[in-house]
Description:
Elements: H1 3-8, H2 16-26, H3 32-49, H4 62-79, H5 81-99, H6 106-141, H7 144-147, H8 150-159, H9 162-179, H10 189-210
Helix pairs in contact: 2-10, 3-4, 3-10, 4-6, 5-6, 6-8, 6-9, 6-10, 9-10
Amino acid sequence: MDIGKAFSYVFEDEQWISKVLLGGVILLIPIVGWIAVSGYMVKVAQNVAQGNPRPLPQWGEFGDHFMRGLYAFVIGLVYLIPVFVLEGLFFCVTGGLAAGARRGEGAAAGLLGVCFVPLIFILSLGLTFVLYAALARYVATNTMSEAFKFKEVIASVRTNFTPWLMLWLVSLLAGFVGGLGLIACGIGVLFTGFYSVCVQGHALGQTVAQQGMMGNPYATQQMPPVNYEPPAM
């Protein structure tokens, strides 16, 4: 993965200032703005995977960005269900034990917390890699149903883990950079946060290409092209 390119390509766009500023403003819109920005990230990834030399999209396609983001949100929601279930179980059980702490069961609640918290963390981390692979299939095909081919998604992570690990590390670094906006009285985080989303989109697009899902200069192997279909539930 070309990590430097993921962080620098934004500034190569002639209209990067207006695009980033508008993206930061859109993040201010509750729920809708966040979903639209997620869809913008998906479009960045698609442009990168297709070899577009200027992958930063225009904001004129707001409706399309929103729908792509909505599909990405649904994909993430489905893949993180096991984490939600485990967290719900944890709070239910510890809540019951906390109520019984007055009867000397506080130690049991603490022991359960020691066991549950690492388990939730490990499960969340593992599903993050699987979710990346699912989103990559959606980016490559523009079809949400492809993201729910669970066996293929899991197999792509198990057989070649390194690209997904690199994508996770770049996402962590991008998130750190995005948090630097807090220095500017918190306002700048809107724009650095949007910038970090763009970085993650480029990294995701590179990973899609490296996995051979689409023909692209970044690709390290070639596979038959995936037929394009409109987004479908």
